[in-house]
Every structure is written in structure tokens, then in C-alpha cells.
Automatic annotation (TrEMBL):
Extent of the signal sequence: 1-32
Protein family according to the UniProt entry: Belongs to the intradiol ring-cleavage dioxygenase family.
Residues annotated as domain Intradiol ring-cleavage dioxygenases: 72-100
Keywords, ordered alphabetically: Dioxygenase, Oxidoreductase, Signal
Gene Ontology molecular function terms on file: ferric iron binding; oxidoreductase activity, acting on single donors with incorporation of molecular oxygen, incorporation of two atoms of oxygen
Designated name of the protein: Protocatechuate 3,4-dioxygenase beta subunit
UniProt key word Oxidoreductase: yes
Amino acid sequence: MSGTRVDRGRRRLALGAPALLLGATVSGPVSALTTTPKQSEGPFYPRNIPSDSDADLTVFNNKRAPGEVIEMVGRLFTTKGQLLPGGRIEIWHCDVNGVYAHVGRNTPPGFQGFGAVRTDSSGAYRFRTTLPGIYPGRTRHIHVKVRGANGAALTTQMYFPGEPGNERDGLLRRARNPAALIARNEPGPPPRYVFDIVLG
């Protein structure tokens, strides 16, 4: 997004996030959490971080990206169950045709392909984006890079529940705990995928 539209969009995201995450909250402290499994960064991390890299990936250069709009939400934890405010969450993924925005091939004009946010005071984050496409050899997924305010870092991938390709995806199958990488789906609109992240 850009210009005034970015400001309005960011205000909507900031104001809406607490209410949207109510369904993902827990009562009381959480303890003895297992670190989210690491996954490879892959070859498609942006060579140059785009100037437009906010939490709303559905609009770029005042054009709307094609595809189904979804929300990706979650919270950032330590293994002791402490919430981590101020952590940086980056995501990147391919467009509806399975093409990444920065690899020298044409993508739709409205496709942003990369976004970054800081977790809020409750450790929560939220992105609005479009459902990624699928390309040969991989199931549907979103790349995630995390750096906590405490210095801990993690690169991983989020997968979608119920995808036929999940059983055949080598990276997912080889993960230490594949179930921890598959988001929980909540009905929309738009559909919401909850992906809590635990930093070691």
C-alpha cells in the first residue's frame, strides 16, 4: 500500500487486531512450550526489501492483488510461555500463479509479496494478504522470518490445513514437528489462519 491509503489501512489493522485475536487468546500463563521448528529460507527472500512492506499485502501501487483475501494472525512466545512484544515478523510468498514478486518474472501489478510488522504489547501480529498459489514440488505455504526484541531469531514456514500437497511436501514431512507448522483455520470473512510462533 502507499500514501493516504497506507495510513488508513494501518489504522484499521491496528484497531482491528485485538478484537480479531480474541479467539486465539489464552487464560493464565502458558509454560513449557516447544520451539517452532526451523525451516529453510529458500531462494526467494527479497533481494531488496520493497519500500512498501506493511501488514496489508493485498494492495500495491494503488492496485489490488488478485486472489482470495486471507488474514494471517498469531502471537509470539518464548519457550517459557512469555509473550514477546516488539518482535519483527516478516512474511513473503508467491502470487496466485505460484510466482514470487522479485525473481525477474511478471507478477500482477497489485501483488506486494512481502510484508513486515512488529508484535504489539500482547505479542500479537496480523497480516492481510492473498492465498498463495502452488508451484511444482511444494505445497501451499508462507515463508516467515522472526526476530524477537530479546535477540532470538527464527526462519520457518507456515502451511495451510487440509492441503492435499501437505502429505507430499518434503520440507514439511522432514520437519521435527510438522503439526506445529500447520496453521489453525478460523472462518471469516475473510478466512483467518492462526499461526503462533515460539522462539527458543
